[in-house]
Amino acid sequence: MKSAVKVSNDAPVLLDRYLSDAIEVDVDCIADGDQVLVGGVMEHVEQAGVHSGDSACCLPPHSLAPDLVQELRRQSEMMARALQVRGLMNVQFAIQGDVVYVLEVNPRASRTVPFVSKATGRPLAKIAALAMAGIGLAAQGITGTITPPYYSVKEAVFPFGKFPGVDTILGPEMKSTGEVMGVGATFGEAFVKSQLAAGVRLPKGGRAFISVRDGDKRTATEVARELVDLGFTVLATRGTAAALAAAGVAATPVNKVAEGRPHIVDMIKNGEVSFIVNTVEDTRTAISDSRSIRTTALQARVTYYTTIAGANAACAGMRHLSRLEPYRLQDLHAKLRAAPFPRAVASPS
Q1: Which of 94, 97, 165, 193 could disulfide-pair with 101, CB 3.0 to 4.6 Å?
Q2: Under a CB-based contact definition with an 8 Å cutoff, are residues 24 and 7 in contact?
Q3: What's the CA gap between 234 and 272, in Å, rounded?
Q4: How far apart, in whole angstroms, are the C-alpha atoms of residue 135 and residue 52?
Q5: 268 contacts 256 by C-beta, under 8 angstroms
């Protein structure tokens, strides 16, 4: 603290508080000084703590209650008016239990604008540019939020394959270098398509390995049950296996690397594992001890997830592997009630 004060008397220390088990939500909206249009509400797949650019997200939200979505819209509209925004604005929320937290409010375009535009059929950048030029939303014929009757999932694309040995664990520092989109009649179908587009091949069976931190053991039980229902045989480290057994899910214990051979890394190298769920405590020791699992999985091209939320979504996706339907974007936009493009308007005098 003394060193920090010497560096800056005005703002020596920044304190952050981490929201555990919180759902993150992005909202993109457009304001013209009078009206506010919510372009889309996107529920992140990964929980708060993973950088928004590295998180998959779904539009419309796949698990949030309608009244909660409406509250997020209401708060976004209030902030846009209070900040006197003209043009695009992005809000990042975190929902912990019944409490809604505002993480960021950015009066600018966000990386999700192209995704929302494709999902809803509305060119948000064009609408916002006209609003900034003085042509209001009403003059453009833009009214009401479009909630598509299908699901769209944006997934991040990572460069890990080009950097051998890099740790693939996700956190608050952005690591992705691109993004893709999947669309489906259900969240599961949209998610599995997004994984295919990102180069992730979800397996249809085999052995699934689970090793999670203490805080994730309860939710990992549900993932393990899903994997068993999908036809997988479950392997787990001893602590995780004991937690699964206590919940009535059979799991075969396997050695960690430090416990001697044969261990889980040997099994991955030998092609004996087809799916991995690995979450760790946010400590240097825990991350270092499990690093070889993730780097070996990347090298062996074994599908892995480093968050429970991602593993849950993958299970939903694997249920749709045998029934994926292609859709034309034009046909999807034709289903939307509102006109996909603003009508022609005259330039402001």
Answers
A1: 94
A2: no
A3: 12
A4: 31
A5: no
